Amino acid sequence: MREYGAETIVAGLLFITATGATMISQTIITPMLATPDVVEYVTTHRGLFVLGVVLEIVNALASAGIAITLFPILWLCARVLAPAYASLRAIEASIGVIAAIGLLLLLTPSGGAIAIALHDVTFRLVLLVFSVSTLILYPALFHYRLVPAILSIWGLIGGLMLLTSTLLIVFGLVEMGSTTDTILSLPIWINEMALALWLIFRGVDLTKVKSGAEVN
Fold first, then answer.
1. Model's pTM, two decimal places?
2. Using one digit for the tens of pLDDT, what is the confidence trace for 44-67?
3. CB-based burial label for 5 (10 Å; 0-12, 13-18, 19+)
4. Quick one: 162 exposed, middle or buried, by C-beta within 10 A (0-12, 13-18, 19+)?
5. Pick from 8, 77, 97, 165: CA 20 to 30 A from residue 109's CA?
6. Backbone dihedral angles phi then psi of residue 204, each to the nearest 5 degrees
7. How crowded is residue 168: how many other Cβ atoms within 10 Å of its Cβ?
8. Could you read off the pLDDT of 7-18 as tens digits, one per residue?
């Protein structure tokens, strides 16, 4: 029995919003933070900088929205995993808002170093929490066959690759935005888009759940 509920459509749109917002915001913000006189550069390009910050906040709010819209579906499947996934996405969203707002310190004369350090730490935490959340979501999607297995397996592998990339960055083995980071991060972002389209146009298949496969 395939479901086409409003929840899956909204979740799909939020996946697209979150991924699109973070990709555009990083395209804007990352080069700015790499400039020698970052405070002066940001002040000169204030409008573009603020847009990047707003998009980071949009990404954070969309991430929280994904957890809210998927919660009823995951709750039907596994009543332990559902709150765990929702909690991780809520934590991710909270840290994301802190990371974005912290960037606004760059608009103050003496806040440059603090803003960059705060953003580096918080953004890495966002990636870490998000990658861990994929290790909950995609196994659940696979086990209950809510979406095609290829999407679930692809998402799980992509999440593990992103987690690897994030840990390599945390331990200083690769640079954020490097070729290695891009290669390891790209699969999960592509998968999020594919999953989003499936949720929007096909929904989720609750056949296995409704046949009595819930985990309480």
1. 0.89
2. 999 999 999 999 999 999 999 999
3. middle
4. buried
5. 97
6. -125, 155
7. 17
8. 899 999 999 999
